[in-house]
Amino acid sequence: MPVYEAPAAPARPPLLNDGVKRREVWAWAMYDFANSGYTTVVLTAVFNAYFVGVVAGNADWATFAWTAALGFSNALVMVLMPALGAYADLRAAKKRLLVLATIGCVGGTAALALAGPGDLWLAIVAVVLSNLFYAVGESLIAAFLPELARRDAMGTVSGWGWSFGYFGGMLTLGLSLAWVLSAQARGEKAQDFVPVTMLITAAVYLLAALPTFALLRERAQPQAVQAAGLRASLVRLLHTWHEARQRRDFAWLLACCASYQAGITVVIALAAVYAEQVLGFKQSETMLLIFLVNVASAIGAFAFGYWQDRLGHRRSLSLALLGWIVMVALAYLATSAPLFWLAAVIAGLCMGSTQSAGRAMAGLLAPADRRAEFFALWTFAVRLAAVVGPMTYGVVSWMTAGNHRLAILTTALFFVGGLVLLRPIDMARGIRAAGLESK
């Protein structure tokens, strides 16, 4: 008697490129895990408010000084990163440069532990350098994404990295929060316990990045050129910049990214300042708030990664930008903690979603033989936003005698601009152009 056999379920299409093992993707995602602690603790939850309130003594210009330091650092990234990306492609040096950038950021973060009341220039130099090296590392690790994930799974794999990264931010913030609470119970002041959180952040960054250095492969090959130094990199960069301008979908993506990232960097750099200055949050309350934001961000990045590959990257990003506009409105209207906590949850969900989508879209539109260069241009746009966004907030708050509500309201304009600049992007056309280039 014949035995009935149920039809086999259709095989799931592979998510990874041939030869890529899941442990290598885990090692790649571990770098997101490692560097998220820097943005979470240094830029978002702890050191920014410490800089304004303790290092700068709550002076009228303190918030502007913080945003100016970040702006100068990001301007350096804009100048240096495109040439570094071109060099990384010519010499197949993404991984080597990533190691150097990590050492630089870890060292700069540890140096922040030396900044106390009145140590303004020490704090500014350490912030400028640590943020510079962080941005270089962020760009280089993103350039590995197209080597690991298939084109139709770019959003999913990007979401894995971003969501895993937020857990790294939560670990670093959790360890820092435990130290802060114990120090406050002992009656210590911020200048006593905040420096220790900088050392915790530096240590977690270094240790968590070790699997990346051990397991992530450099698949690119050095390109045959007569010279592969800085001059050759700059010549190659000028050629790539010209081509990127001709690729209208990638060019529109850069403009869109620059606009909405300006708003995101305001939230990253100034959320703790806003919570403490407007709503009177204490240090521990602010850290709990940012911890919740990281939880929401991890959920948003992971779920959104799968969603955007099915719904479409452009449509998914537009929904996330609408969410950001709602978040800004709630933060502006908040006069008590509960409504601001709701705004923070929405910010977290949207943050993971938009950052995952932007990286995936850049990966889809980048030619295979120029990934580091095109991701360097993407980083240029992100860092331009990181100059414009916080500086706009800082200038508005300074000119209005510390009106943080008006400053946060202006942030909505950046997300509206992102929606407008997203409309001309045709992903199918851009992917075809990138495929032709890579042949």
What does this structure look like?
With 439 residues, the chain is an all-alpha fold. The chain has one domain: MFS general substrate transporter like domains (Growth Hormone, Chain: A). The N terminus is likely disordered.
CATH topology: Growth Hormone, Chain: A
Give the overall form.
globular
Architecture per CATH nomenclature, i.e. the level-2 architecture? Up-down Bundle
Count the E strands.
0
Question: What fraction, in percent, of the residue positions are helical?
Answer: over 70%
Broad CATH class: Mainly Alpha
Q: How big is the Rg? A: 22 Å
Average predicted local confidence, pLDDT: 82
The CATH homologous superfamily is termed MFS general substrate transporter like domains
Question: Would you tell me the structural class of the helices and strands?
Answer: mainly alpha
Name the beta content range.
under 5%
- Report how far apart the termini are: 55 Å
> Helical element count?
17
Structure in a nutshell:
This protein is mainly α.
Strand-helix topology:
Layout: H1 22-45, H2 47-55, H3 62-91, H4 94-111, H5 120-142, H6 145-148, H7 154-185, H8 190-215, H9 230-246, H10 248-279, H11 283-311, H12 313-333, H13 337-365, H14 371-399, H15 404-410, H16 412-422, H17 427-438
